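Quick start: read one record
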Amino acid sequence: MKGRLTKILTTRIAKFNQKSFIKKIDFDNIFSSRLSNISIHTLCGEKQSIDLLYSILSFFSANGKPLKWVIYDDGTLTNDTKCNLQRIPDIQIKSLKDINPFLPKEILDLYPTLWKIEIMCSQIHSTTSMFSDSDIVYFSSFESKGIDVYKENYYLIDEGMGYFDSSYYRFRKKQFPPLNLGCIILNHFKLDWSPIFNYIIRLYKNGLLSYWSDQTAMDQFAIENHFKALPSEYFVVGGNDSFKVNHCCDYDKIALRHFVGPVRHKMWQYSWKKVLGV
């Protein structure tokens, strides 16, 4: 009971903070004196647009302005939202309709998050690039945590092994930390993506495709292509603080946190003004 009441309280705080963010954000004064030689790509819809705006501004504050931030509209972004986002320097908005996918339409309609794989495969070709979910907040620079983002392919470590296709556990190489699809950094672009698509199509034909199939396929891909795991003490996924007032990590000591579903309210519970330095 106490935990549920605490979550109600923290959720209310989060909603209040989000509303204050929406009221006070000044689109005409978003800039960073620092530059980051990285391109960022995000799949987003209207429902996630405020989270994404916060994510973008937090990256500007922590790492500097990227070369570009490409937002892939899932078809639900409103004209007002698109106009506001495009007021931010080097923001580009693309429609998924402009992408020629490898996967059949019926598969993408069944699990739209598979568009993340399509974007990484077909839209990211040169320069250091990062796929970032809309519910990630950046707190300090990657460099400050000893990560040179311009050399290797990297992935976030997930909270556990429970976020893959059930049949995958039998043959997965256990020595590798599990992948979370929320943040992928790419530097080596001569990769053969066909095993991912073959895996997904095979599952679909056998009636075994699941919500976790995109993450499962990417985990296999990362292992076979020698991706490096970002250190989980600085690059945090989820957390056990959903029903607590306090946070599971010290935001002054981490680079980012991926606020997955159960802890999404924690994204806004913490002061956005502290994160953005305003």
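The chain has a mean pLDDT of 93.
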